[in-house]
Amino acid sequence: MASDPRPPADATEPATARLRAEDGNTLVLMPAAVLVLLVLAAIAFDGAAVYLQQRRLADLAASLANDVVAGLDPASLYDTVRDPDIDPGRAADLAHARLAAFGRDRTLQDVHCTPAVDGSQVTVSCEAVVRATFGRALAPDRGTYRVRAVESARAAVS
User: Fold this and answer.
1) d(CA 79, CA 145)
2) How many angstroms separate the CA atoms of 127 and 113, rounded?
3) Torsion, Cα of 98, 99, 104, 110 (10° steps)
4) Where are the transmembrane segments (predicted)?
5) Would you tell me how many other CB atoms lie within 10 Å of the CB of residue 108?
6) d(CA 80, CA 27)
7) What is the CA radius of gyration of the chain?
8) What is the C-alpha separation between 96 and 91, in angstroms, rounded?
9) Selection from 16, 118, 11, 105 nearest residue 57 by Cα
10) pLDDT in tens, 31-89
11) 86 and 72 Cβ atoms separated by less than 8 Å
């Protein structure tokens, strides 16, 4: 058996030829990379949307607190010794009327706000459910998020 005097093919073959023989191996990874990027973008979008709706709920709670303080008991305005009082029954009625005027929203669902009156200060606590846009497609059991906001206002006469 005679030995072959030629060197092995791998040693003499140029690097580009070896790479050309592996064409398409990285092409298989591209759909997976695009899918990972799409999932990450969907998660980022849903996170930003939930944060935005939580800020809207906080704005609603602040406006309700200010509206309730504006609807304070008129008789307490004439008391020069202490701060004006907020009527709790009137505060609840006003908060429910303002909440009804807020209307139905596709993104904020099951909105519930409760005012708590302590003398001349009112604290409004609001809760709502936010539906995620892409979350239902990625994980059907994680399609909704519960958000909460608490804001307060104080009545003062200057």
Assistant:
1) 46
2) 6
3) 180
4) 28-52
5) 19
6) 80
7) 32
8) 9
9) 105
10) 889 999 998 998 899 889 889 999 999 999 998 888 888 777 666 667 667 666 777 78
11) yes
Amino acid type, 155: A
The SS3 call for residue 82 is coil
Cβ atoms within 10 A of the Cβ of 71, count?
19
Structure tokens, 108: 């904020």
* pLDDT value at residue 62: 92
Query: At a CB cut-off of 8 Å and minimum separation 6, what does 155 contact?
Result: 69, 72, 83, 84, 86, 120, 121, 122
Q: Which amino acid is at 63?
A: S
Residue 131 has, within 13 A of its CA and on its CB side, a CA count of 10
Measuring CA to CA, which residue among 51, 72, 54, 50 is closest to residue 62? 54
d(C-alpha 149, C-alpha 128), whole Å: 9
Structure tokens at 86: 């907020």
The number of residues making up the chain comes to 158
Q: Is 115 exposed, middle or buried (0-12, 13-18, 19+ CB in 10 A)?
A: buried
Q: Going by C-beta distance under 8 Å and a sequence separation of 6 or more, which residues neighbour residue 120?
A: 72, 83, 84, 85, 86, 154, 155, 156
**In one letter, which amino acid is 140?**
P
pTM score, two decimals? 0.70
